[in-house]
Amino acid sequence: MRVIGFIAAVVILSSPAPGLAQPPSPQPSASLAGAERGGGEWERFVSTEDGFSATFPGTPKVESMTYDTEYRQQLPARVYSAQDRMGRYSTTVVDYRGLETLHNATVARCRAAKGANGFDGDACQNDFRVDVAGAMDYAAWSLMKRDGVKTTHYMWYFLELVAGRLLQLTNPDQSRTFAVIHQHDGRLYIQQATVQPRMPEPILFMQNLGFVNEKGLNIRYKTFYTEGYAAEWQFPIATKPPHTLRDQTAADYAP
Questions:
Q1: Strands (E), the chain
Q2: For residues 70 and 171, what is the distance between their CA atoms, to the nearest angstrom?
Q3: 83 closest CA partner among 202, 200, 179, 169
Q4: pLDDT at residue 124 above 70?
Q5: Closest Cα partner for 210 from 18, 56, 69?
Q6: Per-residue pLDDT averaged across 17-38, rounded?
Q7: CA distances from 166 to 18, 23, 97, 221 (A)
Q8: How many helices and strands, by DSSP H and E, does the chain display?
Q9: What is the largest CA-CA distance in the chain?
């Protein structure tokens, strides 16, 4: 199956390659206009500002936008996009680093207005942590729920050991959308390509997303990176996170 071929190729590319050095990062030179005509050269593009690298058919167009999170917060985002005769390619980067401040402000406004007259303990709860924890799933659902879209594959996925989601979708016009979603260093990354019917899978674009530091050097982890968890990945967990214990059979138990 072509689906399996794409996934296998991704796994191979994500595997360690001891002894292989990364060449210096070239800067993009081909024009977007050339890419739109199908003649742009595929080149590595690096954004140290948004912490990623990707391969585009020419220099991507950059647009600013506002991204709505699942819990109704608006965050700054940028979309890097290009196209050629085979399809359209984009990397959307959403900056989640200011999300906690926004949620704190929402809670403060709710409490000042005495939400639910002060009787509902959840009326003014702070949804910051769940908004971050569910960011990839919400982004995936936003792609899957579009009218007429059929999801043909959905899986947990990793790139450079950064945890993520992988989707393959068939659109109403029979074009196909391939997407991977990651969270890294306070940002959400949505990498997607849509190719026309009967066109090859966009492997070159989908396999070349990377995460870079402030100097443009690619980052590869030695253990799974999951946003919000700083300790080394363990299974089963040897030391559990901070927690409390409650006896639900006790007479004085309160949920």
A1: 42-47, 52-57, 61-68, 74-83, 87-95, 150-159, 162-170, 176-184, 187-195, 210-211
A2: 23
A3: 202
A4: yes
A5: 56
A6: 38
A7: 26, 27, 23, 19
A8: 6, 10
A9: 74
| pLDDT tens digits for range 133-185 | 999 999 999 999 999 999 999 999 999 999 999 999 999 999 999 999 999 99
Is 73 within 8 Å of 102 (Cβ atoms)? yes
Phi, psi of 68 (to 5 degrees): -90, 120
* 133 phi/psi in degrees, rounded to 5: -60, -35
Q: Which CATH number fits domain 2-97+134-211: 3.60.21.10, 3.40.1000.10, 3.30.450.20, 1.10.3300.10?
A: 3.40.1000.10
Residue count of the chain: 255
pLDDT over 90, % of the chain: 64
3-state secondary structure (DSSP) of residue 71: coil
Which residues share a beta bridge with 78? Answer: 64, 93
Identity at 45, one-letter amino acid code = F
Return phi, psi of residue 10, to 5°. Answer: -65, -45
225, exposed or middle or buried, with CB in 10 Å at 0-12, 13-18, 19+? buried
For residue 255 the two structure tokens come to: 């949920």
